[in-house]
Structure formats: structure tokens, C-alpha cells
Design brief:
Layout: H1 2-29, H2 31-36, H3 40-53, H4 55-71, H5 87-137
Helix pairs in contact: 1-3, 1-4, 3-4, 3-5, 4-5
Length: 138
């Protein structure tokens, strides 16, 4: 059972890297996409990984995206022009934004999962309360 859980975690990280490679391919294949929206595919990849696979693989994708931005830096034409004039500043901004978004999405998923567990618990309590009430009526 433990081995199966470990294999699942490894698979999650491998799939996360695969999603990142898809984003890298999308960014690299289109010069228009690269010049207008150079970081959008990385944000989508990181958020999709966080939603589908969890916070750990999403943070690996964020780190890979920041490294890619650092290594293949070209100043974007648009909103981030004054904020990201150097590769280090761009990579740091991408890493901070992606990690913050991953943390926010991961915490919302955790809260949703806790709520589902509590709903199940309260449904069982309501069922046992109804059973006890019916028993007292006899």
C-alpha cells in the first residue's frame, strides 16, 4: 500500500513536468505568443498542475518556469516591462506569483476537502439521530 502511494506521488511529479513541457512547447512554438504573453502558459501549467496533482508538483512546475524564464529571458512588450528588465527580476516575479497562486489554490482545495469530510460526518450524525428518534418512538 505504501509503495503504491509513493508510486502515485512520483507519477504526479512526472505528470507535472509533462504539463510544464507542454507549456514550454506552446511558448517556444509561437513567436506571437512569446512576444505578447510570454508567461501565460507557465501560469496555466502551474495552476492546472496544482488543481489536478497537488501543491508539490505545482511548486516544481513554478520552479521550472522561473528557471526557464531566467534562461530564455526576452523583455516582454506590455505590462511587465518596467517591473522585469532583468532575467533575475523576471524569474523572481514569476516564481513568487506562481508559488502564491499555487498556495492559494491548494489552500482552497484543502478547505473544500475538509468541508466535504465534515458534511459526511454531519450526515452520519443526522442519520444516527433519526434512528435513535425512531427507536424512542417505539
Amino acid at each position: 500500500m505504501k509503495l503504491k502511494a509513493n508510486a502515485r506521488r512520483v507519477l504526479d511529479y512526472v505528470l507535472g513536468v509533462g504539463i510544464f513541457l507542454l507549456a514550454l512547447g506552446l511558448t517556444s512554438s509561437s513567436s506571437w505568443f512569446r512576444s505578447h504573453y510570454p508567461y501565460l502558459a507557465y501560469f496555466a501549467a502551474s495552476l492546472a498542475t496544482c488543481f489536478l496533482l497537488g501543491l508539490g508538483p505545482a511548486n516544481v512546475v513554478a520552479l521550472l518556469a522561473a528557471a526557464t524564464v531566467y534562461l530564455t529571458f526576452a523583455p516582454p512588450a506590455g505590462f511587465f516591462v518596467t517591473a522585469t528588465q532583468t532575467p533575475l527580476a523576471a524569474a523572481t516575479a514569476v516564481l513568487i506569483l506562481l508559488t502564491a497562486c499555487n498556495w492559494l489554490l491548494g489552500s482552497m482545495k484543502t478547505s473544500r476537502d475538509r468541508l466535504a469530510v465534515e458534511r459526511e460526518r454531519y450526515a452520519r450524525l443526522a442519520e444516527s439521530r433519526d434512528l435513535l428518534y425512531r427507536e424512542l418512538q417505539h
